[in-house]
Amino acid sequence: MKYQGSCHCQAIRFEIEAPEIIEADLCNCSICSKSGFLHLILPLSKFKLLSGEEAIATYTFNTGVAKHTFCRHCGVKPFYTPRSNPDGIDINVNCLDTPPIAINVTEFDGKNWEQHADTLAHKSQEP
């Protein structure tokens, strides 16, 4: 199924291909908790940036592997390159313009990322 999404001001617009019922992860790490990010990790081939490349700013910390991208105008982070899946893309389900018919949410212990990151590795692989 195709979904379109955007940041708050819609300067950044994107499209993804994902299942009708979304399997999302709710992470308790500091950046995810503070930004309200609800994770949907996909293969990069399932993502298309429609507009707004010039509006994207990037923030990195710690190992620098994760590329936290956000809109330089409204500050919303609609997607990013996750440390757990640097070959994929992580979509903020809250930024989808049309909500999925159902979302199954699994809690992820990102505070203890090193012990649990391997449980996410398969999510950026092609089916």
Summarize the structure.
With 127 residues, this protein is mainly β. 8% of the residues lie in helices and 41% in strands. It starts with a strand and ends in an 11-residue tail after the last helix.
Structural overview:
The protein is mainly β. It has a single domain (2-124), classed as Metal Binding Protein, Guanine Nucleotide Exchange Factor, Chain A (Beta Complex), CATH 2.170.150. It has 2 helices and 10 strands. It has helices spanning 30-35, 113-116; strands at residues 2-6, 13-17, 21-27, 38-43, 47-51, 56-59, 67-71, 79-81, 88-92, 102-108. Strands 6-7-8-9-4-3-10 form a 7-stranded mixed beta sheet, with no helix packed on it. The protein has a 3-stranded antiparallel beta sheet with strand order 1-2-5, with no helix packed on it. The mean pLDDT is 94.
Give the helix/strand layout.
Blueprint: E1 2-6, E2 13-17, E3 21-27, H1 30-35, E4 38-43, E5 47-51, E6 56-59, E7 67-71, E8 79-81, E9 88-92, E10 102-108, H2 113-116
Parallel strand pairs: 3-10
Antiparallel strand pairs: 1-2, 2-5, 3-4, 4-9, 6-7, 7-8, 8-9
